[in-house]
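chain below, 342 aa
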Amino acid sequence: MEEHKEFDLITFGEIMLRLSPAVNELISKSDSFKKHAGGAELNVASGVSLLGLRTGLITRLPKNQLGTFIKNRIRASSVSDDYIIFDDSPEARVGIYYYENGAYPRKPTVVYDRKNSSITKISPSEIPDDIYSKTKMFYTSGITLALSENTRNLAIEMIKKFKAAGAQIAFDVNYRANLWDEETARNTIKQILPFVDILFISEESCRRMFQKTGSLQDMHREFCRDFPNISYIASSMREVISPKVHSFTSLIYSKKEDKFYTEEPYKDIDVVDRIGSGDAYCAGVIFGLLKYENPQKAVEFGNATCATKNTIFGDLPLSDFNEISSIIACHKSTGKQSEMNR
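prediction:
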């Protein structure tokens, strides 16, 4: 009988304040901005929680009104705030980024202001020792590893401790060139891959950062040969037709079966906001594997949550299990479909 855990998933990462001008307005022209909370690890925890599993988040926020705003958004996402650490130092700050929607041929634009945010000074002593035995799975991303040497060392230590306590480890390479160079990223990530059970990596990162060749299937198999602990590798496949029209599907490799799973893409997605859609994909895959232990279910939930998040403004997903299940059923259907939910 499987041991009961308080959480299905715990994540670790930075939560940022996003400021966006009105849709199709320019950052340089706008006089007002709408604020949102977001960050890869919160987006994933929120997505898994909406689908019906219990999640928690480890992060560090300034003890001020902005930290309170973000804490309330975490709670509203049904993610446990038990492991939020509050920074009351005079230097406490939340990372900020500005996001401007694109409209063909103008691409979306992101401007970051995140240096020296509170999480970059997090201390291992702030993490309770009993947390490592409380979850079935732990998730973090390359963004967290890249933020600072401090977050990098702590994330690696946490991966090892969660693994030693019996948790599965899910990791998204999620490479950001504005945070670190490819060589540093490659050498760092190679240190943790022996502990990773579920790896999320784009085809571009396989080829550029890890300098692999061949088909995507060839590269998935090579990762599993090089790092035998990896059970599943997932790669999203997005076709950008214009900033507001995308198609999306993905590929998951199951090492145990030596089998690849995919499905027909979601075509001509009406993109309202693509930020957080990759994290929504990770959430759907993680849910499918945790709930059903079924890679085909993981593909279906991953693709559906990603496609749907593209249609929602803000970083965080908002679709629950019933909505995503309905979208999956419609995607599989070959018959005539109603144009309205009634």
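The chain has a mean pLDDT of 94. Residues 149-164 form the longest helix (16 residues).
thats it, cya
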